[in-house]
Amino acid sequence: MRTTFDKMMYIFIAIYLSVWIVNGCRVGFYGDHCNILCPSHCAGNVCDNVTGTCFNCTDGWTGSVCISPCPINTYGRDCRMVCRGHCKHGCNHVTGTCDNGCDDGWQGKDCTKECAPGTYGGECNTTCGHCRAGGRCFHIDGRCPNGCDPGFEGKRCDDVCAVGHYGDGCSRQCNATTSCDHVTGICCGIPNTCSTQHCKFGGGLVAGLSVSFVVSVIVNAALSYKIFMVYCRE
């Protein structure tokens, strides 16, 4: 009388032989002598016993013999999943994670969050420039969509006005002979110092020189007149 163990062994041998006969080779092998391993990414390690082509691929792989990773920005079974976030160089073709970090302007585990307000760029570690009225810059490249605060220019508003210009859009000009504060236009006639007036009529040092010159002319004229009168009396 057969024991339970004998029955189980009989079933196992029957299944093993049926696989061998139907497929011609043991699972995981193919070829004329069934001595060639199936491609490593065949699902279940099963391939055609003659050609070695895979019936299905493991997650993240594609092709007849499953040696090609999923196309960029896709992953998973049959490469049917689309990467969720803005992964740099695409997501992991098997798991969908962002192994190489995020594209510029994005953050978070799956790179689905924009940079926090006031920051932009790679890893969101660059501070925005002087965007108008404290406005946000574009989280990817730092552009200021609404323009710059007075005294600044450039697409990211991180450049001060050129020398001789100031104010909104750097459109106002200082006096030609002086420099001025790039925001307020306060004159800087003497290097590294500013007066309290905007650059009008020469401003700062130039205005001072003009007054001195006029005073000097008046004093010299008065002295000349006095000398002339003394000479005439004699």
Explain this structure to me?
The radius of gyration is 42 Å and the shape is rod-shaped. It has two helices and 16 strands. By secondary structure, the protein is of the alpha+beta class.
What attributes characterize this protein structure?
two-stranded antiparallel ribbon, 14% strand, 22% helix, 234 residues, alpha+beta, 2 helices
Given the structure, what is the number of helices? Answer: 2
Q: Major sheet: order of its strands?
A: 1-2
- Profile the largest sheet: 2 strands, antiparallel
Low-confidence stretches: 17-22, 200-215
**SSE topology string:** HEEEEEEEEEEEEEEEEH
Structural class by secondary-structure content? alpha+beta
Strand content: 5-15%
- Termini Cα gap: 166 Å
Average pLDDT score? 78
The count of DSSP E runs of length 2 or more, i.e. the number of strands, is: 16
Cα-based radius of gyration, to the nearest Å: 42 Å
Q: So what's the overall shape?
A: rod-shaped
Helix content: 10-25%
